[in-house]
Amino acid sequence: MNVKNAFIFTSLLFGAVLSGTNSAEAASFTSNVTGNDPTKDIILNSITQNGKNINNFSYINKAVIQYNTPRTNDPNSGAASTDRGDKATSPLATAEDPTGNAIAAFLGNNNLNNIIDTEDVGAFTIDVFFDSQITKDNSGLDSLFFWERGMNSDLGIQALDSSGKVIGTYKIVNQTRNSSNYAGFKIDTTEIGEAQKVGSWGVSLDWLGVTKLSGLRLTANSSFSGPDFKIIARKTTPEPTTILGLGAVAAIGLLRRRQWKQSSVWEQRDFVR
Ligand SMILES: [Ca+2]
Ligand SMILES: [Ca+2]
Ligand SMILES: [Ca+2]
Ligand SMILES: [Ca+2]
């Protein structure tokens, strides 16, 4: 390959990589799990979306309860509580009136049978934060993955910046109600008497109107039918396009220098002809 062809080839490769990365907004995904007993651990190994495998996750590691409907003598009072499969393991004992640390512990692992259960007419505002910043990329994959037990509830979400300030647009995740978004497994937790189907849905940063986030403000009001949920984020990794892009820029620079060096030789040849 001569210098000119090498230059064209590099440019084409660079262009192809740039144009091939922005696929249509994804949303549904496949949960690849170990465990099929609704009462026991259901461990998420990876997610498949758009034919790509995701196995590098960011987990929730902090939760700040802004409001959680107080408990009364009524066993069905309150709102968000920590819950697990009847025979599943969990980092802590379940609690009807959990602390922020307990909420983070139940959400912050890959056991899809450790969740937050919400009473039907309960309300909450809980800020959760991930162990690393989630940044928009060109992978065409969603950044946030939601599961909801029962496929019968809504969950309000809005992005939080690193200082805990709400940014972007408030959205309601209700696609987990759609029968076509069945995650392929059921769970039977301590709060319910029989196994219920789990629905899932992926969310992009675009949908939330942000290019990066550190956490999410989660909300439910009395009309949301008490969301029973799990949330895991796709860990942001360096862009392959950026690495390749920098490589291409370096290659172009090198080729130009070679061209410049050889140009005097070519001019002499032309003169001879
Ligand atoms: Ca409860
Ligand atoms: Ca539910
Ligand atoms: Ca049960
Ligand atoms: Ca519920």
From TrEMBL:
Biased composition (Polar residues): 70-80
Ranges where the Ice-binding protein C-terminal domain occurs: 236-258
Signal peptide positions on this chain: 1-26
Span list, region Disordered: 70-94
A Pfam family the protein falls into: PEP-CTERM
Highest taxon of source: Bacteria
Keyword Glycosyltransferase: no
Name of the protein in question: PEP-CTERM sorting domain-containing protein
Organism of provenance: Anabaena lutea FACHB-196
